[in-house]
Automatic annotation (TrEMBL):
PROSITE patterns named in the record: GNAT
UniProt-recorded name of the protein: RimJ/RimL family protein N-acetyltransferase
SUPFAM superfamilies: Acyl-CoA N-acyltransferases (Nat)
Transmembrane stretches, start-end: none
Pfam families the record matches: Acetyltransf_3
Residue ranges of every copy of the N-acetyltransferase domain listed in the record: 17-179
Amino acid sequence: MTIALTDLAWPVRTERLQLRLGRAEDAAAVWPWYRLPEVQEWTTTLSDTLADHQQWWDRGLGDCVVGEFEGRIVAAGKVQRQDAWSQADMAEQARGRQAELGWVLDPSIQGRGLGTEFAAALLDTAVDGLDVRRVVAECFADNVASRRVMEKIGMRLEGVFLEESLHRSGRWLDGMTWALLAREHRAGRG
């Protein structure tokens, strides 16, 4: 049986954050900061209106986790279970054995370590809660803040892909893939 995010015990508390599953009504709470140019610079989806944002948000609710700080949502992320690559005859054993993480932060809280705290909790959720064997995260190489978070939570840079990502600026940017094996994560905490 595959464990889903909804099967886990929520909320999850860190030193300063409370994490919980995202809900439809959270779209309006994150919209004021999610739509800011400095946030939209690095997100995959650009919504022009709250209604568009709501539709996009609702489609991702199955993998959505939000982080609350001092009673308001300051981070939104995903822990998306994926199948690991395998040869065709091993596909069943590879099903759901990997997770992809992603996160977006309210710029007003950046610089306090809350992004790292949030991402570390997402990593723990994937490894301990979903029992995956490998966790990945991707970003534009120019997104230095996200890269620093990946480094701080112990992820390893596994690949830099030259001009593989078309940015909404019209430029082809380098992409990066970071990853960590569950056993490495557990050993690093021990």
